[in-house]
């Protein structure tokens, strides 16, 4: 927008009555011969606008206190301030019409310069949008709408009737259908099992409390009204989700239900359910059973798999015993009896 203000024109603040809102804007023309010399010299536009104001101020019949229009638009695309924003126009024919619409005049006439340039149409549009941003409603009319006058002349009136489009506006594609705002997603309410322990809404246990306390310790406790506690709630899910996002997870990987990787990062290890100790006889030379393999896998998880050549199996062997012994030596409760054969305490400490 190329705006010429009253200050630019050397005019004082308008003395016109305040009119903070209106139904819209009416478009005018000068209604007299206008010289085509305007096209070649913008100084002539400024002089034209000064002359219009002078003629209005000298019009004793109307008693104008200022130029009648809110704005004028020249062929070079300048929007020149008249009464400006928030002032009642004196141009629409009577006081009711003046209250209903603001007024913008295009500097074209009934002879000479009669066709608005594209720049002028853009400037009128600028003025309409400026007024719409400051109290004008959506109506765009011509002076002749509701008043007996030829104003604003054929070309400008045809443009007004077309909706006063910007001449350089590209064809408008159909607007995209308006999507309703997405509802706030429901918190995830499924459970997942990791190492025999449940996580997610409804899960219960000390391991749930441990997750909550770790979240709080890391600054992800914002959704707790109380707790954390042993019952997994939506607050646990929401806090866990923020933790997942902090790790760079998104989408279903950040739904607030733990996965192994994030849980390990949160706790520093992966907790597991403590299975019932089956009995010492399952861990003797020659023993072959699922408990041996499970024990071995847990030793590996806890970092005590160093004696395996090929990994844990169902066959009890010396590698199992050496790994168990290493684990026992690492725990003060077990170090005094680190024979490599698991009893109930070794079992519980290994799996918890
Ligand atoms: Zn008019
Ligand atoms: Zn001009």
From TrEMBL:
<protein>
    <submittedName>
        <fullName>Peptidoglycan-binding protein</fullName>
    </submittedName>
</protein>
<dbReference type="InterPro" id="IPR036365">
    <property type="entry name" value="PGBD-like_sf"/>
</dbReference>
<dbReference type="InterPro" id="IPR036505">
    <property type="entry name" value="Amidase/PGRP_sf"/>
</dbReference>
<feature type="region of interest" description="Disordered">
    <location>
        <begin position="163"/>
        <end position="186"/>
    </location>
</feature>
<dbReference type="InterPro" id="IPR002502">
    <property type="entry name" value="Amidase_domain"/>
</dbReference>
<feature type="compositionally biased region" description="Pro residues">
    <location>
        <begin position="167"/>
        <end position="186"/>
    </location>
</feature>
<dbReference type="InterPro" id="IPR036366">
    <property type="entry name" value="PGBDSf"/>
</dbReference>
<dbReference type="InterPro" id="IPR047763">
    <property type="entry name" value="PG_bind_dom_phiBT1-type"/>
</dbReference>
